[in-house]
Write a structure and sequence with these properties.
CATH class of the largest domain: Alpha Beta
Catalytic activity: DNA(n) + a 2'-deoxyribonucleoside 5'-triphosphate = DNA(n+1) + diphosphate
InterPro entries: AAA+_ATPase, DNA_pol_HolB, DNA_pol_III_delta_C, DNA_Rep/Repair_Clamp_Loader, P-loop_NTPase
Order of helices and strands: HHEHHEHEHEHEHHHHHHHHH
EC number: 2.7.7.7
Strand content: 5-15%
Enzyme class: transferase
Organism: Oceanobacillus longus
Radius of gyration: 22 Å
Number of strands: 5
Structural class: alpha/beta
Distance between the termini: 46 Å
Number of helices: 16
């Protein structure tokens, strides 16, 4: 999404709120963009930044052709600063460096923008440092914070931002779009359960790492069903080496969540809702014999809890070990 008109097609309310602010010359000093993966947070952040620096705007629309627009799109504009987690979190030293950068005059103008990805991963110290930054806003400084979990942002930060909630994209139309562009129907269903980002969906579908992750998930469900005594060994020999960084670990838990959801769907006779397995997959029936409905509901809650632990920087190997033991009980 490179224009506000494109954003308006998928996020009509959010685009209307921000466009009205731009038209009135009242761009907020701080935005908190909240939405699931793929709902357009980064695209909107880029459009806000381009709107502040573009040399040839058409109304509210940036031209996307001038030097400023191109550098912002590529992440190379000297007065647009991106901050994202180093490892599991955004640390206080990163915020200190950002603040130091902002004590200098802008390289090309006095306008400055900083965009904080995964802002829910700010450590307590880093969050307090950002709060001080927000409490003393410069008229020509704009903060844009992106998150999938606004409830993890401390209330004092939320209260100083204009919160913009992004709505989940239409799953059916997204699946149809993937199929129209050559993706197999079963793959499109899985991708639509994991992301609303077209580029990301096609990238994952063609990625060898992701294909191996899907195989490992099938094998893990098989272990839970047939050889539960070998699960712990499987976790250490296969899961831990494959799911290395935080994003991969979260994706592994997302796949595990979808697999167990499908097994629950089998119990309630809703095979048409499968996302991970296909209706022809015999493993679903076998697994359903091993897990009661009540146990499956508990497992889904346990996986969600494990995802929260990852975001709280609990040691990843410990998280999956505990989860595996809890699933077996």
């Amino acid at each position: 999404m490179k224009t506000w008109s494109e954003v308006a097609e998928v996020q009509p309310l959010a685009s209307r709120i921000i466009i009205n602010s731009i038209k009135k010359g009242r761009v907020s000093h701080a935005y908190l963009l909240h939405g699931e993966r793929g709902t357009g947070k980064e695209a909107i952040a880029l459009l806000i930044a381009k709107g502040l620096f573009c040399n040839h705007k058409f109304g509210v629309e940036p031209c996307n052709e001038c030097n400023n627009c191109k550098r912002i799109a590529s992440g190379n504009h000297p007065d647009v600063h991106w901050v994202e987690p180093e490892g599991q979190s955004i640390k206080i030293e990163q915020v200190r460096n950002l603040q130091k950068e902002f004590t200098y005059s802008g390289v090309e103008s006095n306008q400055k923008v900083y965009i904080i990805k995964d802002s829910d991963t700010l450590t307590v110290n880093a969050a307090n440092r950002i709060l001080k930054f927000l409490e003393e806003p410069s008229k020509q400084t704009t903060a844009i914070m992106l998150t999938e979990n606004s409830q993890s942002i401390i209330p004092t930060i939320r209260s100083r931002c204009q919160v913009v909630d992004l709505q989940p994209l239409n799953t059916v139309s997204f699946q149809n779009h993937l199929v129209e562009h050559g993706m197999a129907k079963n793959d499109a269903v899985l991708m639509s359960a994991l992301t609303n980002n077209l580029d990301e969906a096609f990238k994952w579908n063609e990625d060898e790492w992701f294909a191996e992750a899907r195989k490992l998930m099938v094998q893990l469900i098989e272990m839970f069903t047939i050889k539960p005594e070998d699960v712990y060994l499987f976790i250490h020999n296969h899961w831990v080496p494959h799911f290395k960084d935080r994003k991969q670990q979260e994706q592994g838990l997302d796949l595990l969540l979808l697999a167990f959801k499908d097994i629950l769907y089998y119990h309630v006779g809703n095979e048409g809702a499968y996302a991970f397995f296909t209706q022809e997959d015999a493993l679903v029936e076998k697994a359903a014999m091993s897990f009661s409905q009540e146990h499956l509901v508990n497992i889904l809650n346990l996986v969600l809890k494990a995802k929260r632990k990852l975001k709280q920087n609990v040691q990843p190997t410990l998280v999956i070990e505990q989860l595996a033991l809890q699933i077996q009980r």
